[in-house]
Amino acid sequence: MLMARPADIVVLANEGAFPPIDLLELCVSRRLPFVTIAQANSEQWWLDDVDAERYRIGLASALKCYFVSKANLRLAEKQIGCELSNAEVVWNPVNVDLGAVPPWPQLGRDGELHLACVARLDPKAKGQDILFEVLAGPAWEDCICTGGGQSVMASNGWLGVLGSPIGSYLQGMYQSQRSGHRITFL
Hints:
The protein is an alpha/beta fold. The protein has 6 helices and 8 strands, in the order βαβαβαββααβαββ. The strands form 2 sheets. It has a 4-stranded parallel sheet with strand order 1-2-3-4. A 4-stranded mixed sheet has the order 5-6-8-7, with no helix packed on it. It is elongated, with a radius of gyration of 22 Å.
């Protein structure tokens, strides 16, 4: 596909820290100009020495290696064992004016502000563990969550430890016996 027609630039982007090594090396061998975009990284994604060397060579050939956070960049450099002089930290594109000051939403019929969390339940990627710790505090009484995920049972266990309003239900409403808080899952 890369060779079907000449490309001005190839963008290698995926959900992890490193693009597929074969595509990276294809771009290098064909002298195709390319950039990489790393969306996420993890302490558990270490490379063996052979792959780390392949990435050192391949990533050094990129026009730019973009990372969505400094932490992801520094971890990738540790994982391959060198600094990436062609790396840059960028914002993920969002369709929001970052300078906007939106008005506070209207309070509900009950005079309260309600929170909705729309995302898959995946604390390692989405950081819901932090949200759950905040929701366990006295400031929040209600939250609507929507989206499935792979970490429902573990998250629910941790929420029980926190005394959070979120219980072991993915759909329906759960009301904490200890705090009176409630979470509605859609």
